[in-house]
C-alpha cells in the first residue's frame, strides 16, 4: 500500500465521483460536480494525473475515453486513515478513537456498542 499517493482535494473529488458512477466520460464527471462547474480541460487534466498516479484507467472509443477506478474506495480509505493516524496520533488508533469520542461527545453507551461491534467482527 506504500505505492499509493495521497490525493489532492480536486483529485479526491473526481475519484469520489468515479467510485460512485463506476465508469464515466469526462463530461459525466463534470455533470456530477457542484456549481460552478469546472472547465472540461481542468477535469480532463485531473483525470490524466489520476491515471498517471495509477488510480484510474480508461477504455478508448475512438478519440473519447471512458474512465474507471482501479484503486477501490476501501483501499484508498485504509491508506488515507493509516496516514492520518501516523501523522496526527503517533500511530495510535486508541488515540484517534479517544479524540473523536471527546470531540463528538460520544457517550459510554455508544462506545460500548462500538466495542461490541468490533468484538463481533473479530469472531
Q: Which fold does the CATH topology of the largest domain refer to?
A: Arc Repressor Mutant, subunit A
Order of helices and strands: HEHHEEHHH
Question: Over the alpha carbons, how many angstroms does the gyration radius reach?
Answer: 19 Å
Largest sheet: 3 strands, antiparallel
Question: How many individual β-strands?
Answer: 3
Coarse shape: elongated
Q: Strand pairing plus helix content: what structural class?
A: mainly alpha
Strand content: 5-15%
**Biggest sheet, spatial arrangement of strands:** 1-3-2
Account of the protein in words:
This protein is mostly helical. The chain is 61% helix and 11% strand. It has 6 helices and 3 strands, in the order H-E-H-H-E-E-H-H-H. The protein has a 3-stranded antiparallel β-sheet. A hairpin with a 2-residue loop joins strand 2 and strand 3. Helix 1 packs across helix 3 and helix 2 (26-32) crosses helix 3. The longest helix is centred in the middle third of the chain and has 16 residues, at 73-88. The model has no long low-confidence stretch (mean pLDDT 92). Keywords: DNA-binding, Transcription, Transcription regulation. It holds the Pfam family Penicillinase_R.
Amino acid at each position: 500500500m506504500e505505492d499509493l499517493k495521497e490525493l489532492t482535494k480536486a483529485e479526491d473529488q473526481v475519484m469520489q465521483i468515479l467510485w460512485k458512477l463506476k465508469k464515466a466520460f469526462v463530461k459525466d464527471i463534470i455533470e456530477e460536480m457542484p456549481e460552478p462547474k469546472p472547465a472540461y480541460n481542468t477535469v480532463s487534466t485531473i483525470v490524466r494525473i489520476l491515471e498517471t498516479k495509477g488510480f484510474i484507467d480508461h477504455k478508448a472509443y475512438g478519440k473519447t475515453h471512458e474512465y474507471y477506478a482501479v484503486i477501490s474506495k476501501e483501499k484508498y480509505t485504509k491508506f488515507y486513515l493509516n496516514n492520518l493516524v501516523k501523522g496526527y496520533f503517533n500511530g495510535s488508533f486508541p488515540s484517534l478513537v479517544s479524540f473523536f469520542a471527546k470531540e463528538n461527545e460520544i457517550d459510554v453507551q455508544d462506545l460500548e456498542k462500538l466495542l461490541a461491534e468490533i468484538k463481533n467482527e473479530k469472531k
